[in-house]
Design brief:
28% helix, 6 strands, alpha+beta
Length: 315
């Protein structure tokens, strides 16, 4: 008697998956990655279209844009007659899957434009967009460029400074031939250079600022210089603070004390202007004063030796 193998399958398995239902079609689907067309169930299961119309709609949707789908072309492709194909096209047009319009060309020839819808417009909530070329929107107007800022102007006219500025601009071509300026451009740019000089910039500094890092071939040298004169304008110099220095020390010719004065002389205590020859010192103590009496020589009017001296205390 043979040995029974319990692990062996009872019968060979089939490659087709077992159906869920006992009868009906069983789908063995494979995912498409190329050369396929998506068809909606509203077309594949349409209740009112004939089988020829449904198959013809699927064929038309699978064609590339620009393919010919006239009755003659479809008759050459399929075994159905022209009458059946024409009737199927009318069914698709009535159901909204096709739209055919005729147009007369300037030459008198009549052509038919056909639009195929994979979903009829009546089933779509949004409006239908035809595959016709959309009109190219007109380019937006280019806004006008703002005018260039005005050139700086000096605060005070100075003919010498104006002449130096004009000579500096006219001599730029000697440093770089690309900066050859017309005479009217020199006159127009001179106030800007004069403003730089007025603000304390040296002529060599202005020349370096105008000639440094120039493009290889400047198209408008005058416009380039005007931009640099405006954009690189240095700020005005801050006002120089006024330093008031005290008067130097002087030695009084009479009391030999130190005091400040612009010129040598006497201090204010010894100054005879507005006071007598004697007075009170800075310390407040009594200062002895000497009064001398002189006699004049009647012969020549010269002063002689003092006759006597008197001492008095002055408070």
């Amino acid at each position: 008697m043979d040995v029974q193998h319990l692990s062996a399958p009872s019968r060979a398995t089939s490659g087709v998956p077992r159906p869920v239902a006992r009868s009906g079609v069983v789908h063995a689907n494979t995912r498409h990655t190329k050369r396929y067309t998506v068809v909606g169930n509203h077309l594949a299961q349409h209740r009112e279209l004939t089988l020829v119309a449904i198959g013809l709609a699927v064929h038309i949707q699978s064609l590339p844009a620009g393919a010919r789908i006239g009755i003659k072309c479809l008759t050459a492709r399929f075994p159905e007659s022209e009458a059946r194909i024409a009737a199927a096209l009318r069914e698709l047009e009535a159901a909204g899957y096709l739209e055919r319009t005729r147009e007369r060309l300037p030459s008198g020839r009549i052509v038919t434009h056909t639009v195929s819808y994979n979903q009829p417009p009546v089933l779509r909530a949004e409006p239908v967009r035809l595959p016709s070329a959309e009109p190219v929107p007109a380019p937006a107007p280019t806004p006008d460029k703002p005018p260039p800022p005005p050139l700086p102007q000096p605060l005070s006219p100075d003919p010498d400074r104006h002449r130096v500025a004009a000579d500096l601009l006219a001599g730029l071509r000697g440093h770089d031939p690309r900066l050859l300026l017309a005479e009217r451009d020199v006159r127009r740019l001179t106030p800007g250079v004069a403003t730089w000089l007025e603000r304390g910039a040296a002529p060599d500094s202005v020349r370096r600022a105008l000639t440094a890092n120039l493009p290889e071939a400047p198209r408008h040298p005058a416009a380039l210089l005007a931009h640099r004169l405006t954009a690189l304008l240095p700020p005005p110099l801050p006002p120089t603070p006024t330093v008031v220095r005290p008067h130097p020390f002087q030695t009084c010719d009479r009391c030999e004390r130190a005091f400040r004065a612009p010129e040598p002389g006497r201090c204010r205590d010894c100054d005879p202007v507005g006071r007598d020859a004697v007075g009170r010192g800075d310390s407040g103590r009594e200062v002895p004063a000497v009064q001398a009496q002189f006699t004049l020589d009647p012969a020549n009017g010269q002063s002689c030796q003092p006759l006597e001296k008197t001492h008095r205390s002055v408070r």
